[in-house]
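Box 3.1 A note on notation
Throughout this textbook, protein chains are presented in two layers. The first layer is the amino acid sequence; the second is a token string describing backbone geometry. Keep the layers aligned when reading.
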Amino acid sequence: MRRLCYQHLVNEIPLIAFALLWSIGVQAQRVDPPGWWRSLQGGEVEVLVRFAEAPVGVPSVETAGPIEVVGPIEVAPSGRDCFVSLQLLPGAGECELVFHWPGGERRSVPFTHHGDAPTRLPQGLRPHDTMYLLMPDRFANGDPENDDVPGMRERGTDRTDFERRHGGDLKGVTSKMRELEEFGITALWMTPVVENDMERTSYHGYAATDLYRVDPRLGDWDDYRELVDEAHARGIRMVHDWVPNHWGANHPLLLDPVDPAWVHGTFSPTNYRGATVADPHALPTEREAFTAGWFARAMPDLDQTQPHLARYLTQAALWTLATTGADALRIDTYTYPDPAFMAEHTAAIRAAFPDAFLFGEAWVYSAAEQARLVAGSPFEPGASSGLHATCDFQTYFALRDGLREAPGWETGLSRWYQALAQDFLYDHPGRQVTFLDNHDLDRWRHTAGDDATALMGWALVMMGRGIPCIYSGSELGWSAPAAPDGLVRPDFPGGWEGDARYGFRPLTLTEEERWWLERIKRLSAFRWHHPELMAAPLTQSIPQGGWYWMEHRTATEAVTVYVNRSSEPRQVKGERPGFDVIEAVGVDAE
């Protein structure tokens, strides 16, 4: 029997069903989503069915199995895409949608009724978590067989070229979970893993060409689920990187558009100025240029005000969480999409998965602007954003600028103090995701300028409030600028056969890398061994002459971090009486 052309066909359909479907003409290229659960959206789902060729006219649809069609069938402007609204009935199993056109043609496509509720449910993140960010293509190659996939636009690997793929994959990440656990990691964030069938720089994952397919050079959904299961077995929560703002230019629903209105016109770059969304004085044209402009030429900007697209994106997010069991969504470029859509989008996700943790990338420049995006803030715009937290750029900016300047009332550590003093803007500031660098920024050691300053930054972030995120390789003291991108996105050592160095094995590292690894591991291990303490409220002192301390305290234990940015040494003993010293680590400016 010839292979059928379903892109998302479920393997378990019996052979007799294959024969039946083939006999009446299976020509569906896509069925998105390919299945659903009754607990999601009350069992209602809008299915997008794309045919290779479709007869003229609006079809009717018969169903086989515990589903029924509700509402009229809508044919998209493309003429080959149909939107069908379904209601799942009690039961489960393989179903059929049989399309009948006025001219007598009929075609059948499969749909899977997964039952009452997903068996894989998000568990969320916790304030005491320590997160680790990695790019799967650059972390470890667990399956060399998928390094070159026929049919993909970018073929093969070249580890000497920062813009090419290097061969890392999901099996490679799974193979390193024991080492991540031993390092004290309790949450793992990977850059996007869905298909990115772009001609170049497809490794980073942010130009999706199929939300319902793992990039085959990284693996498949079974590999993803295996990774999540291995992470959960080791107490590690999984963060899925979600991008509702844009797709890759090669997405088939854009190349042969379902509806041209799904994209904001032709390429016109965004102004990248997120403040225009909240600015009461903003020019309407500049606000529109931000939300409707393209992030990059290769990433067409989606218009989420289009109802069918809005439903498509929300259903894809729900399907992904139900399919993988990922615990959290990191929502990329959160401020760029239509704000009303984002409020509805996150509300639907939280309604379906109350324990899922949602945090957004919001590259904004004030605490109020950032806090207004977090649920519970008095400055939320209209409907709730639905976010539990953001990537905390305010504490990052405070460290980036403050630790490189002389102490003063408004400078130096006062910037960090002031950033934390704005935490009254948040219901739960301990949920904020803090960081020193990431895949878009200079490596922290490069930013800090010297090792004493760099170590101070590490102590403040790892021992401060919030969920600190370590970018893979920075724990080894790597130092590089972010331009070009590839300089901060090298391969993690030891993930490829033949690597002489291994990032989790100190004896194979340079002396400098060992020095950094030992210190960062001590900080992460402390967080791992004292979860209640790290989730406890934070107290901080006013910086005086470059001297600052902050403290977490419970009824039974406390941890105090002292930072001295002056040129004069200062004694810690007696500064905070009443506690036994478990371990003291001091870093002076000299």
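Residues 1-26, 577-590 have pLDDT under 50 and may be disordered. DSSP finds 16 helices and 22 strands in the chain.
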